């Protein structure tokens, strides 16, 4: 089980080092802190909107997940800075990661 194969199936996991417990982002097989192996942590991870933009009536936002790393995500309604969100949909489309939050 690796991050990309799970993401391709629409499942979001956070890669975490089995030795030092550091979140490894961008996802990798080995920790960039201690070179320990990485496992995938499952959960309903919360994020906070740091900024957002609108393009052709679609909203996009930068979300900080678990106070650690940031992703760009789509959101269906007008967001506000500081809003708590979680990933509702994710995957890989044409080789690119995509995330949707609510």
From TrEMBL:
InterPro entries: ChsH2_Znr, NA-bd_OB-fold. Residues 6-34 form the ChsH2 rubredoxin-like zinc ribbon domain. Signal peptide: none annotated. Pfam families: zf-ChsH2. It comes from the Archaea. This is ChsH2 rubredoxin-like zinc ribbon domain-containing protein. It comes from Nitrosopumilus piranensis.
